[in-house]
Amino acid sequence: MAQYKITKDDIFTATNGGLDIFRFYIADIDQYVGKKKHFVDPTRNEKTPSSMIKQTEDGNYIVRDFGDTVSKWHNAITYTQKRENCEYGEAIAIIAERHGIGSPEAIRSMYQAEVSSADAKPDQNDKEKFFVHAEEVSESHLRILFSDKVWSNIEYQHRNRKEEERHKAVLEQLRAVLKEQHWHALDSYTIIKERKAITFTATEFYPIFRIEEEGKNGDRFSKIYQPKSAKKERRFFYDGKFDPQFLHGYAQVKRAYEQVVKDHEDSKDEDESKKEKPKLEEIIYCTGGSDALNLRALGYHVVYPSSEHFRLSKDQVFKLFQKAKSVMTCPDLDATGQLQNHRLCKSDASDFFLDIRTIELPMELQTKRDQYGRPCKDLRDFLKHYKASDLKNLVKVAMMYRFWDYQLAFDRSGNPKIRYGRPLYEYKLSMERVLNFLVKCGFGRRKVNEETMEFIHIDGNLVRPVKPEDIKAYLLNFLRSRYAPEDLLNVLHRSTSLSNTSFDSLPVLDPDFRDYDAWTQYMFFQNTTWRITGAGIEEIPNSRVDKMVWESKILKHKVRRLDPMFEVTQDEDKIFHLQINNSDSMFFRFLMQTSRIYWRKELEDNLEDLTADEIKEYKQRNKFTVTGENLTPEERYDQIVHLINKMYAFGYLMHRHKAQSRPWIVFGMDDTPQKDQGSFGGTGKSIFFNGIRMVKNLLQFDGKNAKLFDDNHVFEQVNSNTDVVYIDDATREFPMERTFSMTTGDITVNPKGKTRTSIKFEESPKLGITTNFAPDDMGPSTMRRILFFGTSNYYHVDKSGMFKENRQPIDDFGKEFWSSEYSDEEWNLDLNFMAQCCQLYLSWPTWIEAPMENIMDRSLTNNMGFQFLAWAEVFFSAESNRLDCFIPSHFAMEDYKMESSIKNITSTGFNAKMKLYAQLKKLTLNPKAVQNSDGRVLKTWDEVRFDGRDKRWIKSDRKKTQSMFYLQSESSSISDRIYDPTEPIISQEDFPVPDPETNGPNWP
């Protein structure tokens, strides 16, 4: 066997005889070197020092813990094994890396075979294999196969021997286990491939074993096992006529059973001749050979499958029960191991499967890590961290799935009871096994809040809430499915132990329902699952999905994934481009129609000169589009961006993940400029959120309820399962600011009669609002919290005669959205489109904003008020000549009060409205050139007052410094002109052109 170049001598030479290694684990070790003074081992909780260090004749240091059960000296390498819970070779690698012995590449190569290649001999055939067996299994290879706790257990068995004899006895015992199980060490094996003889040679820390077996009809085959192969698929391969249903260890179990029977026959008295034959105490069905070897070394009888495709048959289970009092399994703790064991023990092939007992490894084991950094999960890992006695206790309490016992019923005379010509059996439930069976079948409890627990059932990745009567029904249905006798069913019917009180002993489960992360969203369907990322949509079989999901969230549709319906790109100038590949989705078409903000121009104004047939043909050709032919490029682009924005907003709501950087409220409002106080509605904003309702858990509130937030229990129905809170048709007075905390912080839930709780930001729902009114506050704080989408009034319900016709979605589509009239194909199209909207959101690094001009106009109009807008439109009309000049503030305010019948308004309130009007009309209020140092606009000018009797303004004889304002149009320069309210209004054409030299009036 080739030796790796980093030997233990190399380790000791590089670490001062191992002293540097001990210094790493025992900080004050130098105080005890050469002094025969005891110290406290850091791994043990002891008050009396019981450990000692000394230097051997070869110059290396060793440590001994005299308080240990099996007291022995440890060199620095074996001490590292003890502290790191690892194998000998792993300890070498840890030390080499920690103390810089050898390069990283050299350290990694420790667990690699030596590979060589030569030309094949003429008589050697391709795929032929040759094996060179080792004379003896080395200690380093034994330590790779057998856990340190197994070594400790066997050492304890030989504790009365001297250390050298004890060590030799341990090696002999472990080698005997390998021989009994048909495991043989190889020095090398050679495979002939493409006329090359490729040889793989074992190294000190890379063992190769050959498991030789005899299958049916005496056919021989071997399993070559390389436990340290970096690639899992290369850890074993077969040679010879492999039997996929071969059960390793069965021949050994059979031989042990026959020996027990023989020993019994040889020792029994005549009086014992009628007694039942003895059996083995247990046979443990292991998941693999490594677990089996460790269990066998501890004295248990074991069998294990020949491959991962092996299935334990009814006949094999029957034969195992013939030979043992108990047949057990010890499944891995990962989901695959638990599921496979559950299917085995619950198999309906025979009731014998129900009698298989499961050795339950502690869940705490998964908090520890193996050499690859993965959670520990199997028996081999268990025996690194727990003692053999701990395993013995687990074996002692292992339970079967059968949750009832039965026996023949006897009368008082000891005769079997007979009813209707058949013997009667007595049945008795074991409540502990009932609970065990229910736990294995996925039943448990879930904490809803501080005061409420609910029963749940987890089936694969599906979770459903259940009631105690549902749990009892599950047990009855299980028995009926296995054709259980009527008497057993009646025992369940009559049992008073199957109640809330007993089921309260079920464990508390905390399933993780996060079907998302920052970059991913899952959608669950009856026939498949979609995994949505920015890169695309992946289809995953439901059986392979590891995400927990409420059964109620499984979309009751069978879908098939379609090619992308659209592609959104943006060029270097930040111009959006939309390519539509498939617009068959009704919901896609609906979003197009609600994005047609220029529909009146396109479908009414621009078609006036066409004939009726030409109008019909154009409308049919452009029925569902945002790029109508008779619109300008700018108008088409606006509509494209509106559509992309809606798809993006929809995708945002579909993605359940909440990020502090995107705490948005999706705010849907009409995109048509509002010239009066009318609110026509029916534009389709609610249908947008009904689409979300089809794929998400949406909770709706009435936005017209002025006292919505006055209710302390308003959010009592909100929980971590709520995806979206939707406030429908909010009024102008809706307190928008009350929703901000919902988007950036936790949500307080105060159910009636229960304790107030809080839903964390990450688990709280997203928020959507629809309204016919813009928010009052359009400042930066508000704008960064709102993701607007605007809907045109293409769909409208109007009783005022403003439109030529009413139009609703049903007029375009002939059916209600997502109603019973929807076909499977229509569902599939819409669901694909919705998923692709989510992909759009996940793929886009920044938000996609709607064209904001009309939305801003509505906000400005709402906030200044329609009365002020109506007054200002007249007051600043072209005929008034009141633009680009100074206007006395008190004159304007009085005029507004008189014309609008307003009794009182403060100068602050009036100025605020003036700012909104200027912003709406793209005018500049009080440019800096007219302001003084403190920002005010003051002029010394004639004092004017209003004569109520004559209804006119009168100028007095004295001058007065008074407040004024100046409204500058976009292309005008600053003028010194002061508007005189006492003068009659003259037209713009009659007004003199300013003198270029004086910038003053140039009267003729």
Automatic annotation (TrEMBL):
Residues 680-777 form the NrS-1 polymerase-like helicase domain. Pfam families: DUF5906. It comes from the Bacteria. Residues 984-1004 are annotated as: Disordered. This is NrS-1 polymerase-like helicase domain-containing protein. It comes from Sphingobacterium lactis.
